[in-house]
Amino acid sequence: MLNIKTFLGLFLVIALLLAGCQQKEEPQPQPEQKPAAVNEAPPAATPAPVDTVKEEPKPEFPDMTGTWTGAMDGHATTLKITKQDGEKFSGTIFVNFREAVNQSVSGKINLEKRVVTMSDLIKARSMGTYYATLSEDGTKLSGSFTQTVDKIKVKFNLSKKK
Questions:
Q1: β-strand pairing of 66-72 with 75-85
Q2: Among candidates 75, 161, 64, 70, which has minimal Cα distance to 118?
């Protein structure tokens, strides 16, 4: 019986050795396959990017340049606007008071409210600020002038010469 056990043990060892000596095949990588899509459209060309930033149109300010004439507190007044850049403008104002006033001014237009504000630039006792409404057609200014020192407030009306 020892012979049979020895024979079986020896047979088992040889079988294991032979099984371990076989060359193993390494698995070959499979190419990826996409699952077939149902009713898949061919890929569309990607459109070129479009610049979506739109420039807002610049507001059109009324032309303030030119000569405006009228009266301030009953006295002949002439406003000459010589320079305008968008909402800002500058020029001179002449008021024929007892003592004539000739003053440099700078101003600004609020387009939404159609309000014009101006300030005298030359330091003098009579200097002040102007606040007026511009007519829809841009040819009339109606408002008030307030002296800085004495706080005297007077009304004025000016029309633009064509």
A1: antiparallel
A2: 64
